[in-house]
Amino acid sequence: MASGSSATAVGTGSSGGAYGNATTAVGNQATAIDSGASAFGASARAGASASTAVGPSANASSQYSTAIGYLTTASGENASAFGADSMATAVNAAAMGTGTSNTASPLLNTYGARADNATAAGWGSTVTATNGSAYGTMSTASGASASAFGHSATASGDYSAAVGYQATASGLSDSAFGNGATASGGNSSAYGAHTVASGLQSSAYGVGSQATGFQAAAFGTGTSDPGNPAGNTYGARANFATAMGAAATASGGASSAVGYGATASGDNSAAYGRESTASGMNAAAFGSGAGALADSATAVGSGAQALHAGATAIGAGAATVRANQIAVGTGSNTYTLAGVSSAASNAAQTGPLRFVTTDQAGNLGTSSFDPASVQILDGRVGALENRVGALGNSVANLQRDVRRGYEGTAIALAMAGASLPDNKRFAVSANFGTFRGENGFAATAAIRLNEYSFLHGGIGVGTSRGGVGGRAGITFAW
Q: The domain spanning residue 418 has which CATH number?
């Protein structure tokens, strides 16, 4: 039956027909109701103005709606449904692709674009919230303005986005990208296969990485077993934590772990380097295998170990042995402080100066005396040297005098009196004398004055020191 201006009805069936101006119904029991409606196919129904239904049992029931395909339904104004059993049931909704495999019971279909301005594309895709989009087999967008792309992708949080096979974005403004990626914390982001961002405002980047704390961030491969992401204990697992690198773990509040296998488990701790560990509160480890294992400890260098509270180990293999210690290097190291003797370094010194001392183990300390004490001691030593020098001079002079005395003795021995026979008037003699290594020569003479007296005298000289001596005398005899 065709009823209305420019209406066209082609096909059999008592309930079918074109009812309204410019309507068209083509097919067995096809029905076009209201102006501008078009129905093509057996039991197709275009039930509102400017609606279009194409395909067996296709149903476009709202203004400007379009249903194309077997058992398609476009029941929302301006809605579009394309593909067998697809459904677009809300204003401006769009559904593309087969809606369900259960064609024997189409009333059980809950798939399709079922909210205003929704878009569903793919078998079993479902959009149930305003402005949502679902693209891919069994994809679901149930949050307002949410988007799901990929097989079984789910975007259930408002303004969320899930992209990839079984990707899930369940919190407000969450984003999940990658196979099995999960963002559930609210304003969180997960990028990469099996990544997890479950903390509020958290971020996870890289296969298997996990950010489970508030504002936590994880970067890099989280586990070597992508098939078992549930067993992953790596990642940023505390509030404000950051983990970067394969198998890196930041489990302390506001901690940072950077590098393969790096672990920061203390609050406010930091571990940078392959398999570095910072387990104390406020601890920091820098370098491959470095460990800061006590509160406020710091280890810098490959294998450096700060094992005590407040201690610092600097250099490859350096290790602390007590609290608040600074350990630099090992016994095989040498040390160079190029600027220690610079004018600027000296000018920066204030207060009394001290000498630095060390023991066999390398423990440093200061001596009980200082440079000023050394200056005083230096003055005293100088004065003592002067006195010793003067004493040396005196001793040398004394030695010379002693030798001269020895020489004088030798001269005296050489000046023994000359003998004068009775019948002689004049006699002369020469003599040699020696005493303790010194030698002397002397000449003596005697002259008879009368038969009762004679005058005699002599002169002597030393052989080594040039000493000269003399004598004179008179002898009386009766």
A: 3.30.1300.30
